[in-house]
Amino acid sequence: TQLPIEEVIPGLKEKLIGSNTVILQAPPGAGKSTFLPLQLLNESWLKGKKILMLEPRRLAARTVAARLASLLEEEVGETIGYRIRFEKKVSDKTKLEILTEGILTRMLQDDNSLENIGLIIFDEFHERSIHADLALAICREIQSVLRNDLRILIMSATLDGEKLSSLLNNAPIITSKGRQHPITFHYTGNDEQTPIHLQVSRIIRRALSENKGDILAFLPGAGEISRVAEDLDKEKVNGNVVPLFGDLSIQKQQEAIMPDKYGNRKIVLATSIAETSLTIEGITVVVDCGYSRVPRFDPASGLTKLQTIRVTKDAADQRAGRAGRLGPGVCYRLWTEGYNHHLIPHRSPEIEESDLASLVLEVAKWNSGNIFEMAWITPPPRGAVAQAKELLGEIGAFENDRITEKGKAILKFPAHPRIANMILSAEENGKGELAADIAALLEERDPLERGKSVDLALRIELLNKWRKKERVNADSRRLEQINRSAENWKRLLKNKNNKAFSHYDCGELIAHIFPERVAKKIGPNKYRLANGKVGVIPENDELTHEEYIAVANLDAGQKGEAKIFLAAALDENVLRDIAVKKRISEWDEKKGELNVSTEWRVGEIILQRTPEKNIPAEERIPLLIEAIKKDPQGMLRWNNEFREMQKRVMSLRKWNAVTSGASVTSSASRDEFPDLSDEHLIATMEEWLSPYLENVRRKEDMLKIDLYAIHFSSILYQLQKMIDELAPEKIEVPSGSFIRLEYFSDGKTPVLAVRLQELFGMLQTPAINNGKMKLMIHLLSPAYRPVQVTQDLESFWKNTYTDVRKDLRSRYPKHSWPEDPYTAKAVRGVKRK
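The structure assignment produced for this chain is given below.
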């Protein structure tokens, strides 16, 4: 049967003749991965060179290679070959290689002109893996500088072609309509009360009864797949239940992909791995839980953790498309039809949410220039790049924005730089095989059930017992996978002379991977990590007896505490070897005193502290000043006497247009008043406060400092006298009382608050500052309550006093209320008998 892609192949070939970059949009099942590459093998512009095709997953790379080879009636490794991590099948005859994306990056590093390559195909590019983005950026540089004849073909089923084309110099787009059969959708709703595996099990049983053909169910991860398989096994459903996820053996993966050899109905329980180029035979029904599990990098913790997220619209469409490849299909979606319209259109590029340590190191080796000058489809976030450079610097792979020799050695290992650094360091010390086992344990699934033990060394012991055919209380299938992965690592080792491993060796190697996660015990089951976080181990775990541990796996934590899932005991001497000597000079806010000490520490872990008692004044006084500036109001006693003087002086500066740079001299003029504002005093604290800090050690000593005495004594006598004349603290009123004036730092009119009876006979409003500033008089009742506010006393007596007298006379009969306030005698209290 003719494949849909065949209709567009002539047009595609034509575009590849005239353009070095082309975009192909083709739906699932069109034949873009399993047919098209063969049709390009003999194009004249290839000039006998190879084609490389990138697949985002190992399973897809193997399967696509096998399919293409079968069409040529050959074995894989002849015309068609593949390369994945730790495995390859290629020969001198190979013209088309299927690669996983990290493999291409290493090929580019080894041969930066790709002289023997004519075309690179990026399949399933919509997944936007970090390796695909990096490889594309490098290939574009090769095109622009070295190889204008190098072709790039970008293929996807759910790609925003127009947007991508605009980012690729308006690369031409070829679109295949495909041959998608109609799909009937059933929206079952989202039941948040029922676990996802129970919902999927229920829908699978319904689908079996309502439809014919095989079923493909999408689940977030292997855990949910296992639980659904158990549920269906208990129900004895009529069908062969097979899992499909990345950690399965090749044999098990092929069992899921191929038709059941006995002709039974097949129920494939898969992760998002089944969204890609894989063609799973016989599928007519899809059950989509609506979730996927993806790695997300947390810059705050430096951890990459798996998050379960809602599926995006493009991924949901791809999943559903699996049901319509052979004929009309059915898709059950575990959400509502209304919610379907609110799904996010496209998945986020991995480069925006990933740990960028490997990418930064790869770019540093590729070109020592600026990472942000490369031709990215999506530029990497600057914060994540900075964090990656910091980590690479800590492990010696990066220095002065350039890759080191150690960094180049790290890149030869197909692993995260942390893991590669650990293997290299261990190999030098005769612990390479142990490092290989640890690397495998960290990358593969845990052979122990969560909650059994946190100790990594226990897993190493179980692995070695399993190798000796001894009985172990662990998942044998996972141990087998771990052993296979470890053997792959060991083949890369140069030094085969390995020592027997001791109690603390695992912790030492983990400390090489995660130096920021070495930890010291601070409670019965709590540990302080070097990065400042607090980690918690189950209370009954044997590892809680260790004073120091190195943490391999933990979550981001809640309420400031992270759960530790995997760790190993650590010898304190290892910490002392990597500890840094640091002299600490700081103000202890809790104790209210200076803390100067010498510490040996690893990050936030203090191994030893020696306090210093006699701190030289030249060091102590600047530390005290710094502490005061952080909290000037709390560290100094700004008493009322000082505040009143401050308000008077600042008012005079305002009223007399004082220049801020004026200084006080013995021949002070009226314009020369000191700046006593809080802002100025804090800014110039070193100048006026330092002499008074000679004997200060604690906060209590600071609070004894008399700010009024310091600043009043610094003002020359003539100026003190002038301040008292121009802005007196008190003024005398007709009753003979001396009433305190209220001043304001912003120069607002001062207030004279006085009882009305004490001003009888005063005709004019009193003024200060050489008569330039009339006071604001707050006239008070005998009970000191406000009666009137005025700056025109004469007007008050003439126009308002009569009404006030009438209103208050009956309420305060014992007090004086004369008819004529001009001639009446002022009194302080009640009328005299």
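Interim note for the steering committee: Confidence is low (pLDDT under 50) at residues 658-670. The longest strand covers residues 593-602.
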